[in-house]
Automatic annotation (TrEMBL):
PROSITE patterns: CYTC
InterPro entries membership: AAA_16 (IPR041664), Cyt_c-like_dom (IPR009056), P-loop_NTPase (IPR027417)
Region (Disordered): 1-23
Pfam families assigned: AAA_16
One term of GO molecular function: heme binding
Superkingdom: Bacteria
Domain Cytochrome c residue range list: 171-322
Organism for this UniProt entry: Phytohabitans suffuscus
Protein name per Swiss-Prot or TrEMBL: ATPase
Keywords recorded for this protein, A-Z: Heme, Iron, Metal-binding
Keyword Oxidoreductase part of the UniProt annotation: no
């Protein structure tokens, strides 16, 4: 009989927390390996876009893909997009990082300095003409700015020039540059449009620079609203909940490294509770481990621990998001929750027609548009199909129904 040591609890619920075992993502990792190889050889390849609900593991996967690229001596940089923030500054910082990673493999330091000069000129454009001197941003690049390239002020033109110059530095060393963008749905329309144009241009040139994005399920709609050809430009990969086998692996593999086992019935119940959503797998796994006195872990251990997992999710996963909503927005979401309960697929928190929400709240549909748009902007709901909305947070409808 083995004691389950709480100090050795391996599970990691939390945004962007690296899981002890990255389960069920082999296909995505393989696809990316091929992409890296093809791009480095100048073969035509589409940029990748990972989409999925909150807590399915997009950020973690993005970070893993980044390590994969670094492993192949690529230059990499990462951005987390924010609403109302322009792309210019974060792109400068990310490409600066990427080129610094490449520099040690490069034989001609002046080529790096040339690029950094262009990058600085691009970055300095982030300062609007009338910004006060002390508010001006100083990119931490120690070469003089080189005027005349990537500094027109038109983000589309500038990104194309900047990306192709960055790519040519990578060509010199025989690898590539990968730019990772998390929460990509939050980029403004102008920036999205410019990014699409730059990716389009670069792939036509066979230049080794790719953008790897991650975002909520409506990211494809955001991209195609900006540029109609974006559907052909990107390869979308839906990141979803784990199937039973992968969920068992996510729990079982780290446990067995600590010589802890689960009874089959414990795994059955854990899957029923988590629905295979990675965040929930980690949360229930962690609480169960803390409560289980000995290995093998039983279904009873899971049952005893579940309320603690649920209490933690209520605060850290659901509550923190709910609090971002105004009273009117909360009312809107409650109506959604009530309506999605009447669907047969309760667990899925099915999409709800906006017309039904208006009826439920006895309001005119147009009067609810501000609440709906604000909730989309806050990333709490999304509109996958025209005229419907759904929660971006799995099990959110159920949560709202239980808090009453
Ligand atoms: N493949 C996986 N196997 C096991 N656990 C995972 C896996 N992917 C992610 N997790 C766990 O799930 C949780 C959420 O991961 P992550 O923050 O990457 O999700 P996300 O999709 O980026 O969510 P959000 O949309 O809120 O940013 C983390 O605790 C992480 O450890
Ligand atoms: Mg994330």
């Amino acid at each position: 009989m083995r004691y389950v040591d709480p100090v050795r609890n391996p599970y990691a619920p939390g945004a962007g927390q690296r899981p002890p075992e990255l389960a069920g993502r082999d296909r995505e990792l393989q696809v990316f390996d091929v992409v890296l190889e093809r791009v480095a050889r100048g073969r035509p390849e589409r940029s990748l876009m990972l989409t999925g609900l909150r807590g399915v593991g997009k950020t973690v996967l993005l970070n893993t893909l980044r390590s994969q690229a670094i492993g192949r001596l690529w230059g990499t940089g990462k951005i987390e997009a924010r609403p109302d923030q322009s792309l210019r500054r974060p792109v400068s910082a990310a490409l600066h990082m990427a080129v610094r990673e490449l520099a040690p493999h490069h034989r001609a330091p002046d080529r790096i300095d040339d690029f950094l000069g262009v990058l600085k000129a691009f970055a300095l454009r982030a300062n609007s003409a009338n910004a006060k001197l002390r508010d001006r941003w100083q990119p931490g690049i120690d070469v003089p700015a080189r005027a005349g390239r990537a500094d027109s002020g038109d983000i589309e033109i500038d990104l194309v020039e900047l990306f192709s110059d960055a790519a040519s530095v990578a060509t010199d060393v025989g690898t590539g540059i990968a730019l990772f963008i998390d929460e990509m749905q939050d980029l403004g329309p102008e920036d999205i449009s410019a990014l699409c144009a730059a990716c389009h241009e670069l792939s036509q040139l066979g230049a080794p620079l790719i953008v790897v994005g991650a975002g909520l399920p409506h990211l494809p709609a955001v991209l195609s609203a900006a540029k109609s050809y974006s559907e052909r430009l990107f390869r979308y990969q839906r990141i979803d909940r784990l199937d039973r086998l992968s969920a068992d692996q996510a729990l079982g593999a780290p446990a067995s490294r600590e010589e802890v086992e689960y009874e089959q019935k414990a795994l059955d119940l854990l899957y029923e509770k988590s629905g295979g959503y990675p965040y929930f797998v980690q949360a229930y796994g962690k609480a169960t481990w803390d409560h289980a006195p000995r290995s093998p872990v039983t279904a009873e251990d899971v049952r005893v621990a579940a309320p603690e997992a649920e209490a933690e999710l209520a605060v850290g996963f659901f509550g923190s998001r709910y609090e971002r909503a105004t009273p009117a927005e909360r009312e809107y979401m409650r109506a959604m929750a009530a309506l999605s309960a009447s669907e047969p697929t309760d667990d899925m928190d099915a999409a709800v027609p906006t017309a039904e929400i208006a009826k439920q709240l006895e309001r005119k549909p147009a009067s609810l548009s501000p609440a709906r748009d604000a909730l989309i902007k806050k990333g709490l709901i999304y509109s996958g199909e025209r005229g419907t909305v759904a929660f971006t947070v799995p099990h959110f409808g159920r949560y709202l129904r239980t808090v009453g």
